[in-house]
Each structure stands twice: as C-alpha cells, then as structure tokens.
C-alpha cells in the first residue's frame, strides 16, 4: 500500500510537460516537452550530465529530411556548441519511424545529449529547433538550465 502511494505521487511528476517559451522566429512550439527529472525551468543538470528529453509535435508541412539544432546562450553570448554530428539528423530520433514526414503527422522526438557549459553554477538559455528540408522551422522553443558541478 505504502509503495503504491509513493508511486502514485511520483509518477505524475515524471511525465508532466515542461512549460517552454517560443522563439523569436515565430515558429510553432511543440505540443509537449518532457525533460527527465525536470518539471519547471530552469532544469538543474550536472556538468557533463545528460539532457534527456522527449517532445511531441505535429508536422505542419511534409519534408524529406529534418535537421536538429541546439543553441546555448549565456546572456546574449552564444556558447560555442553544436549537437554531435550523428544527432543533427533528427529523423534518426523520431520514435517508431524516420523520414520523410507528412503534414499533419504526430511525431515524438527524443534527444539525449551531454550538458555543455563553459563553467558550472551558471544558468544558460537553450534553443532547440527542428528544420524541414526547405529551411523552414517545424518547431522551435527556448528553455533554461542551470549547470551545476558534477
């Protein structure tokens, strides 16, 4: 009984979506963003730890390919960071499918990437965007994370 009560309390916290902010380019935002062990901004991530997120979106256009970009900002300064080459092809991280995608399709995208910052005890702004083959964004959102010592 006690274990099931604890599970009932903890389980909703593990699946709640994170409130995210739109990007300046007016791109759509995902329907839901779920970050492991984080339910509100800023997410707290140990230096060198993994950012593990799932998000759901509905494609507003068809595309043969989809590119992922993750930009990290410290104030107005863009931290020199790019997703690893193998993670830039977002098609490889669509749950149960790949590309091409069709307009109106529901898609789950999973990203698990190392936390990177120039130093610990800093809060950074993150911008994640998926871009269709024609160069237009399928979605874009901003969120923040505090990088702490490992």
From TrEMBL:
Major location (coarse): secreted
Localization terms from the record: Secreted
GO cellular component, one term: extracellular region
UniProt keywords, alphabetically: Secreted, Signal
Signal peptide (from-to): 1-19
Pfam families registered for this protein in UniProt: E1_DerP2_DerF2
Keyword set includes Cell division: no
MD-2-related lipid-recognition domain ranges (all copies): 20-145
Family: Belongs to the NPC2 family.
Protein name: MD-2-related lipid-recognition domain-containing protein
């Amino acid at each position: 009984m006690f274990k099931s009560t604890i599970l009932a309390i903890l389980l909703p916290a593990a699946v709640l979506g994170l409130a995210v902010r739109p990007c300046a380019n007016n791109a759509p935002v995902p329907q839901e963003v779920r970050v492991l062990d984080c339910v509100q901004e800023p997410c707290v991530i140990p230096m060198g730890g993994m950012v593990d997120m799932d998000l759901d979106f509905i494609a507003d256009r068809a595309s043969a390919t989809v590119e992922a970009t993750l930009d990290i900002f410290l104030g107005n300064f863009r931290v020199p960071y790019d997703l690893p080459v193998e993670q830039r092809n977002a098609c490889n991280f669509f749950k149960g499918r790949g590309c091409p995608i069709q307009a109106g399709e529901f898609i789950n995208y999973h990203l698990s990437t190392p936390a990177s910052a120039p130093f610990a005890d800093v809060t950074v702004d993150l911008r994640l965007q998926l871009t269709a083959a024609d160069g237009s964004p399928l979605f874009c959102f901003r969120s923040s994370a505090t990088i702490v010592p490992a």
